[in-house]
Amino acid sequence: MTSLVHCPLCERPDTLPYHRDRRRSYLQCTNCALVFVPPVYYLDAERERAEYDLHDNRIDDPGYRKFLSRLFVPLSQLLPVAARGLDFGCGPGPALAAMCREQGFDMALYDHFYYPDRSVLEQRYDFITATEVVEHLHRPGLELAMLWHCLKPGGHLGVMTKLLRDRAAFSTWHYKNDPTHVCFFSVATWRWWAKQVAADLSFEGADVILLHKPNS
């Protein structure tokens, strides 16, 4: 039956068992290398929102800001003065957007639960951030394509997500234990996706991915 489960990133049916624990099973796509859980394990919207409500990510929390600076610092160095950005999946405490605004960048916010105004997804931006977001997406292929469409030529997409290393590390990885984490990206997966959209790709540390959209 697992062979009938399509990859949520590339939509191919070429998947193989990757891991199983007492809560869920995990598949890996042989095309794009994404590791993911089948839809049967997705939480419904009410339970998913309840999990997010447990997070205490305040705008003025110095620890949270330090965490976000792993993306903010390298990304901000690439941006022109007065660049306009979108904080996608910003959560209830959009600290990264506040940090960007403090540097003079104009920011729009979107979050499925907390800032659900989808009109911001019909606009174009110089940069887009998605911190600790992509691992939650049920349809990452469609969502990433949408974000890439929202990005102006020459713009930057900055992503923060823990990167999957290998099967042995995955078996004891705390990151997979969050029930809202359903997609796990590796360096190979990001290289595959960057190739699909002709993006320039770079990595900062263990969990920051920067993608630059060509001007033409």
From TrEMBL:
InterPro entries (alphabetical): SAM-dependent_MTases_sf
Protein name: Class I SAM-dependent methyltransferase
Gene Ontology BP annotations: methylation
Annotated source species: Sediminihaliea albiluteola
The keyword Transcription is assigned to this record: no
GO terms assigned for molecular function: methyltransferase activity
Domain of life according to the entry: Bacteria
Keywords: Methyltransferase, Transferase
